[in-house]
């Protein structure tokens, strides 16, 4: 066992060094490329079947859902004031937060009629006892497995949980480890959604793992309590509260912009459709690394592209900017 453990640690250290080297060399030596506004696709990319089925199942349409969230933003002046304030705190244009909310409530959920509805919903989680686990194993015990040893020295919650997510992908996803089989699914879906897969909550539809990743940044900028994976109920209460949820939306967008600038040498801050796309699909760090590798291989700056979700935001940009 000691020999095996030593081999495992060496392999993980080598992997970490390779990732670090890739990040350091990812951004090109020339000036950062500013991604212009607008869509790269002439027509909207295909909308996933799950979103189509969910919308049809509630006897509505994407157009009606868009109109509903647009009306919420247009009439709830308190909410718009909070969006502007939180955007300023994280150094981003508020149109990015507006775009993320519009996309979520057009394709994933229906907008609530009033902001107060979120407070009522959040209150219903007070006192509830949840835990993040899979197959009877709490995530706090799971991350103590030796495969996660390399993550212990990570400085902040974003680096720490990103590392743990990488280890899940490489060592556990779809594999049998120590006699226990693990699903071929995302870390967040397996361990961090105790009700049903794909569930997110709150105004920004924040995923619990995303909230844990961004916890240090949100604590630093907004002063909210640091989240802990041992307190699943506390995580859900935080992402259900509109004010805190907005901070996580802004923090997520801030990280996406920073990841693409630092890793891929791309400034996406002028394209709300791209930040909305990344808000929808997640994993901005890995996606920025993949784009950087693609550009190095091709020897040219290939621009990132919006998905169906971001395409709508760019397509409706003039209309959405008038809300501000």
Model description:
With 324 residues, the chain is mainly α. It has one domain. It is 60% helix and 4% strand. The protein has 16 helices and 6 strands. The chain has helices spanning 2-26, 49-57, 62-75, 77-89, 94-107, 116-123, 139-142, 157-172, 187-191, 208-222, 232-240, 242-264, 272-281, 284-298, 308-315, 317-321, and strands spanning 33-34, 133-134, 137-138, 176-177, 180-181, 266-267. The strands form 3 sheets. It has a two-stranded parallel sheet. Strands 2-3 form a two-stranded antiparallel sheet. The chain has a two-stranded antiparallel ribbon with strand order 4-5. Strand 2 and strand 3 (137-138) form a beta hairpin. It starts with a helix and ends with a helix.
Topology:
Elements: H1 2-26, E1 33-34, H2 49-57, H3 62-75, H4 77-89, H5 94-107, H6 116-123, E2 133-134, E3 137-138, H7 139-142, H8 157-172, E4 176-177, E5 180-181, H9 187-191, H10 208-222, H11 232-240, H12 242-264, E6 266-267, H13 272-281, H14 284-298, H15 308-315, H16 317-321
Parallel strand pairs: 1-6
Antiparallel strand pairs: 2-3, 4-5
Helix pairs in contact: 3-5, 4-5, 4-12, 5-13, 5-15, 6-11, 8-10, 10-12, 12-13, 12-14, 13-15
């Amino acid at each position: 066992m000691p020999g095996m453990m030593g081999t495992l640690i060496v392999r993980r250290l080598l992997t970490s060094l390779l990732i670090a080297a890739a990040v350091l060399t990812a951004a090109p030596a020339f000036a950062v490329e500013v991604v212009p506004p607008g869509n790269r696709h002439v027509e909207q990319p295909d909308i996933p079947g799950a979103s189509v089925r969910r919308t049809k199942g509630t006897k509505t349409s994407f157009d009606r859902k868009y109109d509903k969230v647009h009306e919420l933003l247009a009439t709830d002046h308190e909410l718009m004031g909070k969006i502007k304030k939180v955007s300023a705190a994280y150094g981003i244009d508020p149109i990015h937060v507006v775009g993320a909310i519009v996309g979520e409530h057009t394709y994933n959920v229906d907008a609530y009629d009033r902001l107060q509805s979120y407070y009522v919903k959040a209150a219903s989680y007070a006192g509830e006892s949840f835990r993040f686990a899979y197959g009877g194993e709490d995530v706090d015990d799971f991350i103590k497995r030796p495969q996660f040893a390399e993550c212990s020295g990570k400085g902040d919650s974003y680096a720490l949980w990103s590392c743990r997510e990488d280890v899940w992908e490489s060592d556990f996803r779809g594999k049998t480890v120590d006699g226990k089989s693990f699903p071929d699914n995302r870390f967040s879906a397996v361990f961090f959604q105790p009700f049903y897969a794909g569930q997110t909550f709150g105004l920004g539809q924040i995923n619990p793992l995303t909230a844990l990743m961004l916890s240090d940044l949100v604590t630093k900028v907004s002063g909210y309590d640091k989240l802990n994976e041992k307190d699943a109920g506390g995580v859900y209460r935080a992402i259900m509260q509109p004010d805190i949820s907005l901070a996580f939306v802004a923090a997520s967008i801030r990280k996406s912009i920073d990841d693409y600038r630092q890793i891929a040498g791309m400034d996406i801050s002028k394209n709300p459709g791209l930040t909305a796309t990344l808000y929808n699909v997640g994993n901005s760090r890995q996606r920025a690394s993949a784009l950087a590798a693609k550009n190095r291989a091709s020897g040219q700056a290939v621009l990132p592209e919006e998905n169906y979700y971001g395409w709508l935001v760019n397509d409706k940009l003039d209309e959405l900017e008038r809300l501000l």
